[in-house]
Specification:
The structure holds 2 protein chains of 2 kinds.
Chain A (H helix, E strand, L loop, with lengths): L3 H40 L2 H35 L1 H35 L1 H35 L4 E3 L5 E3 L2 H5 L2 H32 L3 H37 L1 H7 L11 E8 L4 E8 L2 H7 L21 H30 L7 H10 L1 H18 L2 E3 L3 E2 L10 H32 L9
Antiparallel strand pairs in A: 1-2, 3-4, 5-6
Helix pairs in contact in A: 1-2, 1-4, 1-6, 1-12, 1-13, 2-3, 2-7, 2-13, 3-4, 4-6, 6-7, 6-11, 6-12, 7-8, 7-10, 8-12, 10-12
Chain B lengths: L1 H32 L3 H11 L3 H18 L1 H10 L1 H20 L6 H31 L28 H25 L2 H32 L1 H9 L1 H22 L3 H23 L2 E3 L9 E2 L7 H28 L14
Antiparallel strand pairs in B: 1-2
Helix pairs in contact in B: 1-2, 1-3, 1-6, 1-7, 1-11, 3-4, 5-6, 6-7, 7-8, 7-11, 8-9, 9-11, 10-11
Classes of the chains: A mainly alpha, B mainly alpha.
Chain lengths: ~450, ~350
């Protein structure tokens, strides 16, 4: 426990995980608010307007928490990962600086106009403010994904004599193929989070017989977007992501599946517990050939197991990596099933009377948060033991002058602050949901 | 190229101080100049549209350091470890204070967040001022360019160094007073009625303190970092900046007395900008000054990213910078005139 690296990793993992609860919701909601407002402008329907107002209010609360928890992330690169920052800044500094200039200024300038400016701007210009927030938040996501993609699959750089990495081709770096796939996958994941939240509140109001117009609007948009998002997360984006991991990080793929031995017709395990010390997967339930298909598009392809790689290159937390991947993939499959069912009932005009399904929708909203978190854990644990894949090891990247005691101190500080922040967020959003869309007009 | 990026980073830090500075100042003062809920919301609606965008200048400045001087960012942030986290937590509480307070119409809820907002706004400039003080005083860099300072040690800039000593605390207190004065002038410009009148009184009372502390901090700087004076003397840019801050200081006083509120606020902006520009010009090319061995200093020349990285950054940086200024101009235009408390539920 005196190893500062452990605390650096724990802190960054914790603050990043907590932070990302909010951007995934706001990126999803931003897209749906644009949809609500576009429908309101086109049809003039009261439900769309009310839903847009209500979700904008929820968006405002979530966005504020996303901003204040995001700022530390930017600085933690320097505070906790000083060697990593100084050696890679010549590359990733580009996208991190772009995010500030192109995305954060756009978002922060139009946030107050979106949340409080409906009367001042009028419907059309207010729609533009919503569009600005959507564009800004999704752009911000891209710069972060491009930065992460460099850590996963470094391209567009050169190595300098002092061991630092420097940008060689800006286009190659920014349009890293890994980034394009991961972005699609991640953004669809965010859309799922937003859509499930919108559908859940719509279902909740419908079950209680409250706020009929806004409930109906939320339910419809939530279910349609939820289905589209869940489907696209799996195919093509999840599938492409799997191929990419198989091509560039075969060790991570083996660890994700708890696969210690190589072989053809590799199965996909639904469940099972990896026993790393004895190099086996306990109690597996398997589907033969599926992993070979996911990885190489061929049911009989050979998929290498961990045994083929030196242990020093194995991911450092194979157990958690394995569970993260399975939780993500399992939940993703359930999302498609739930939303397909809900969409079918919506099509038939029976969704609002099918109380069991409404209950399921109302209770399902936490699970996309879990699935998205598990997905990021899969990506980042799979990247270990590297900070920049194949180039810079995690063990070399920490701050040389920061000791474990200092990092534990700040980690505890974050734990306390974020605990309180989480409670406040839940309390405020629950209050908004109970109050409903009417209050969002500013009744006084 | 390194000089250009040094200038870019300095400009962005200075814009951050001027812009977020008025938010901090308004935050510190609002407990005193705005006494009832409606007045508090008037202050919040004066800064509400801007504060988040203003804070982004800090992030954007950090981004520029990351891009152009990664070693400076890494060494500085890890070396000032605890102070940086204090600043991050303070900024977090400040943002939450502004954003959450008006969501619940309850006296205790709002009172709590108002106090949080004020306290956080007070601590942020102290920490930022002390950080600047550290850069001027110098830090004990090792041969690899790293350092680690505890929050405080001997409290003397000549003894065992800590982040806080009498000199850096003095710099922090000067920053606090200058920023509070700046915020008061902003509120004089953007509000009316009792809030404006009280802000005017506050600015009048703070002005002598600003001047006094500025003299004290300058004198202390001469004894702690005599080299800075040589830099000031040698660089024409430093003279121009010094003229700017002196003219700004005078304008902030004279224009306030003449009731020209916008001019007084702009004078304060010029004061802060000029002061930071003069410091940057005098320090160039040093970014993190090493003591006692000045040869270990991290400079714009020995800590820059590769020439390719600096060049590629210039392809897009100007576009982003113009856009950012454009958004700010648009916001000031949309919200021109005096800020009024928004109806319940329709604003901060």
């Amino acid at each position: 426990m005196t190893d500062p690296l452990f605390w650096h990793r724990l802190q960054f993992g914790f603050t990043a995980t907590f932070h990302y609860i909010f951007p995934q919701l706001t990126m999803g909601l931003a897209a749906l608010i644009v949809v609500f407002k576009a429908l309101a402008l086109r049809t003039g329907g009261e439900g769309w307007t009310l839903a847009a107002r209500f979700w904008t209010r929820v968006f405002g609360i979530s966005f504020a928490v996303g901003v204040v928890t995001g700022i530390p992330m930017e600085f933690q690169f320097g505070t906790n990962w000083a060697v990593f920052s100084s050696r890679t800044g010549g590359v990733i500094g580009q996208t991190l600086a772009m995010e500030g200039l192109f995305a954060f200024f756009l978002e922060s300038s139009f946030l107050a106009l979106l949340v409080f400016g409906e009367r001042r701007l009028g419907p059309r210009r207010h729609f533009l403010a919503a569009l600005a927030l959507f564009f800004g938040s999704w752009l911000s996501g891209y710069f972060i994904i491009a930065t992460d993609a460099f850590m996963q699959h470094p391209v567009g750089h050169s190595s300098a004599a002092d061991g630092s990495l420097q940008i060689a081709s800006l286009l190659e770096y920014v349009f890293n193929p890994w980034a394009l796939v991961q972005y699609l996958h991640n953004q669809m994941g965010a859309l799922v989070t937003g859509a499930f939240a919108v559908a859940a509140v719509g279902a909740f109001w419908t079950l209680r017989g409250e706020h009929a117009a806004a409930a109906r609007a939320s339910l419809r948009v939530g279910v349609v977007a939820g289905f589209i998002g869940s489907a696209l997360v799996a195919f093509p984006s999840g599938h492409m992501q799997g191929r990419m991991v198989a091509d560039h990080q075969p060790i991570a793929l083996a660890a994700m599946e708890g696969r210690f031995e190589s072989g053809t017709h590799a199965p996909l395990s639904f469940i099972g517990q990896p026993d790393v010390a004895n190099r086996r997967l306990d109690n597996p339930i398997r589907l033969p050939g599926i992993l070979s298909e996911i990885a190489y598009g061929d049911f009989s392809a050979n998929v290498r197991g961990l045994e083929e790689f030196p242990e020093s290159d194995w991911p450092t937390n194979i157990e958690l990596l394995y569970y993260s991947f399975h939780v993500m993939a399992g939940l993703g499959t359930l999302f498609i099933a739930l939303m397909a069912l809900a969409l079918g009932m919506l099509w038939l005009g029976r969704l609002e009377r099918t109380r069991v399904l409404l209950w399921a929708l109302a209770l399902a909203f936490p699970f996309p948060f879990i699935a998205n978190t598990a997905g990021w854990l899969t990506a980042e644990l799979g990247r270990q033991p590297w900070l920049v894949y194949g180039i810079l090891r995690t063990s070399e990247g920490g701050s040389p002058t920061v000791h474990g005691g200092a990092t534990l101190f700040t980690t505890l500080g974050f734990a306390g602050l974020y605990f309180v922040l989480g409670i406040l967020f839940l309390a405020l959003v629950s209050a908004e949901v109970r109050r409903g869309p009417a209050a969002a007009q500013g009744g006084h | 190229m390194e000089a250009l990026w040094f200038a870019i980073a300095s400009v962005m830090v200075a814009l951050y101080v001027v812009l977020d500075g008025f938010d901090f100042g308004a935050g510190i003062l609002h407990l005193f100049v705005a006494r009832e809920d409606r007045e508090r919301r008037q202050v919040l609606s004066a800064i509400g549209p801007y504060w988040d965008g203003n804070e982004v200048w800090l992030l954007a400045a950090g981004g520029v350091l990351f891009l152009a001087f990664p070693k400076v960012l890494a060494s500085g942030l890890s070396g000032f470890y605890l102070a940086i986290f204090l600043l991050l937590w303070v900024l977090l509480l400040r943002g939450i204070g502004i954003e959450f307070r008006s969501h619940v119409a309850d006296r205790m809820w709002r009172g709590f967040w108002d106090a949080t907002f004020a306290l956080a706004s007070l601590l942020a400039p102290v920490l930022l001022g002390a950080a600047l003080g550290n850069l001027v005083r110098g830090v004990p860099l090792d041969e690899e360019g790293w350092f680690g300072l505890s929050l405080f040690d001997s409290f003397s800039p000549f003894g065992a160094l800590g982040i806080l000593d009498w000199y850096t605390v003095l710099a922090g207190v000067f920053a606090l007073v200058a920023i509070t004065h700046h915020g008061a002038l902003f509120l004089v410009w953007k509000t009316d009625g009792p809030v404006q009148a009280r802000s005017r009184t506050a600015a009048a009372r703070l002005f002598p303190l600003v001047v006094g502390l500025w003299i004290a901090a300058s004198a202390a700087t001469l004894s702690v970092a005599p080299l800075l004076l040589e830099g000031l003397r040698a660089r024409p840019l430093a003279w121009i900046s010094s003229a700017l801050f002196l003219a700004g200081l005078a304008t902030s006083f004279l224009a306030r007395r003449a009731g020209r509120d916008l001019a007084a606020f702009l004078g304060s902006c010029a004061f802060l900008l000029g002061l930071l520009a003069a410091t940057a010009a005098a320090l160039y090319p040093t970014m993190i000054r090493a003591v006692p061995d000045a040869a270990r200093s991290l400079t714009a020349l020995n800590s820059a990213a590769s020439p390719e990285a600096l060049e590629k950054g210039l392809y897009w940086w100007p576009i982003g910078f113009v856009l950012a200024l454009g958004y700010a101009a648009l916001l000031f235009r949309l919200h021109r005139g005096k800020a009024q408390a928004a109806p319940e539920g329709e604003g901060y």
